[in-house]
Amino acid sequence: MNENAIHQGDKALIQDNNHRLKTSVKGTLTLIIGIFLIIIIMGLSIAYGAADIKFSTVWEAVTNFNPDITSHQIIQEIRMPRAVGAVFVGALLAVSGAVMQGLTRNPLASPSIMGVTDGAAFALVLTLAFFPAATILGLTFSSFVGAGLGVTLVFMIGSFSRGGLTPVKLALAGVAVGSMLSAISSAIALHTQVAKNMSFWYAGGLTTTNWTSVKILVVAGGIGLLLAIFISKSITILSLGEEVSKGLGQNIVLIKILGVLVVLLLTGAAVSVAGAVGFIGLVIPHISRFVIGSDYRWIIPISAVLGGLLLILSDIAARMVNAPFETPVGAITAIIGVPFFLYLARGERRGL
Known about the structure:
By secondary structure, the chain is mainly α. Helices cover 79% and strands 0% of the residues.
């Protein structure tokens, strides 16, 4: 009997090791392929625009920049930061959504649905209206504060509902708070005559992205991504339930505080640069889980890669739909995300 138990234990251990090996191989291949595709599509994004540029010229501008050549200046100062910014914004929003879904165990959670994006935009309106001379660093800081305000309001309102916070109730609270903050933002923008400046933030876009914007994304986003990776194992355990997490000795309060900090850093930086680009944080984490499973040590890096890939593809599509005019990239991501959200909400209808 003891020998049989030992045999069964060895068999289970072997199966677990095989599963981990398969997950590692699949995750590594996904990351390699995703990064390769990002590099290729970044090249397309840089080459395509109001005036198309040959790939050979793009390569020359990257490897042997000549400031006297106009096409080199366009590539270095306009198209490269836009392409790099698109990848970073997509990555930050996707990871933010993955962390939110893991912490709340809510498949409908994302920065655009949970009031985080609208909170950040609300703070930006206030800053532009009352502090018009604010630098991009000031705008970024205000977007962090606004993102925190949005999260706080959503959870406060959702917590008053009968029966506790179900996924759909939390999503409904997020939509309600987001609509309220968006309406107030519009009123303030019209009254203080900054509506034209804010139209970019509401629509979502990458047209004003420059190297300063990229630096903010790299610094704030880099810190947020490192924190997300640091707590990824804890999020995996927490996603199984708070009782399980407590039983395994997890400090739930600390994990949630760090998780919220990650969301504020990632979403605040992304919104300050690209405005209200929605649904990437909703769609990508689900795709990542479908590809790799429920281990957030893989979900977070894969979400970052797939999020960057989706946004840079959406940015190219935004330029092609109504060329030579640009469609807001937020409209492209909404076309993808709204049906996905309705599908998920339909699946969660019994939580009402």
